[in-house]
Give the backbone structure.
Amino acid sequence: MLTHLDSQGRANMVDVTEKAVTFREAVAEARVRMRPETLQMIVSGGHPKGDVFAVARIAGIQAAKKTSDLIPLCHPLMLTSVKVELSAEGVDAVRIQARCKLSGQTGVEMEALTAASVAALTIYDMCKAVDRGMIIENVRLLEKLGGKSGHYQAGEA
């Protein structure tokens, strides 16, 4: 059953009024593939716009906090923690991992996915002048804890 549809098939925000407040956590990831020279420029700190990872990290954190403004049926949440980690992966990719936490009545999967996505878009934005062929890929939920549906962990991509 799709929870964002009412009995007539119309979109609606899920009513979480009666749900218990519990600890919730979600982890999402994204990757940005690029030319090896682009990754080297980022890692060496040679980008003329500054520290690409630092800017993408802040963008991801900010995006998590604004998720309900971007996704129409998401509840505004009082996040208690947002962490965005970026690392070089091999010679041609950046891996982004976003972790969101709270104690609340609904999960934080969308916030973690939004954080990872916007961090990836920020890398693209900062590096597009030197590498327009970058590919954002594998945006996915890795893990979800808490709530009625319990623990979810993704398999290998």
